[in-house]
Amino acid sequence: MRDGINPPHWAPPRPSWRFAAVWRRNLLVWRKLAIPSLVGNIAEPLIWLVAFGYGMGALVGNLTLALPGGNVQTVPYLVFLASGSVCMSAMNAATFEALYSAFSRMHVQRTWDGILNAPVTLDDIVLAEMLWAAFKALFASSAILLVMLLLGIGHSPKLVLAWAALALTGVTFASLALIFNALAKGYDFFTYYFTLFLTPMTFVSGVFFPREQLPGWVRAISEALPLTHAVQLVRPLFLDHWPAEAARHIAVLAGYALAAFWAALALTRRRFAR
Predict the structure, then answer these.
(1) What is the mean pLDDT of the chain?
(2) Closest by CA position to 254, among listed 182, 186, 178, 164
(3) Could you read off the pLDDT of 160-205 as tens digits, one per residue?
(4) Distance, CA of 173 to CA of 207 (rounded, Å)
(5) Residue 12: is it exposed, middle or buried by C-beta count within 10 angstroms (0-12/13-18/19+)?
(6) Contact in structure between 234 and 165 (CB atoms under 8 Å)
(7) What are the angstrom distances between the C-alpha of 110 and each of 30, 60, 146, 186?
(8) Cβ neighbours of residue 38 under 8 Å, at least 6 residues apart?
């Protein structure tokens, strides 16, 4: 830590506007690789969409979904999957950036150590990394959403609000990933996060099939997961409806983001204090 003032590990975050310089530094580096990065971020989700949406969708046909107000609507499986997979894409993009890329800058390349020689604090760096990962998530999910619109998957003007929900999703999962970034000793450590948390969450959060088909105890667990609330915000917008209990979903995602960012910052402070 700089300037001889080391805040307690769990002290409230106190970043300054200097975080913007760190964020801009990441942007300038990434700009050289923007096209390959874009292709990498959207290729896998689009493969999922084509394989499951068109392939399995032909077998599944239409799904009947409960809507706000007690109404029901029959929708093609492709639309159901698209509205969930765009949230999954935001989650994955934020996670990969806040894990592998941030760990490379922090531990392998020692970029953070170099930045700390400038009038920048560790709080600034962690905030910049979180916002940068959230930006990457929004960039990737926006590209996927644009492709979906070009394919005619969703045409509601309410989809404009999906960008805000996807941005919040990126912030949430970037903050969660930075916790594991602070704890990791090597890249292999991230396997635990993907295997034990992200992958199971993807399958129980309503991305690939309705949560109503799950056992009651699994639905109860899924209700506490952040991806579930992201999907509950975005999917109704695809169907030209307003999300039910939108304030609750936003509050849950924001609560996860705030708590996870604070924990990630505290663990990063502890790591750099050693």
Answers:
(1) 90
(2) 164
(3) 999 999 999 999 999 999 999 999 999 999 999 999 999 999 999 9
(4) 16
(5) exposed
(6) yes
(7) 17, 50, 36, 14
(8) 139, 140, 143
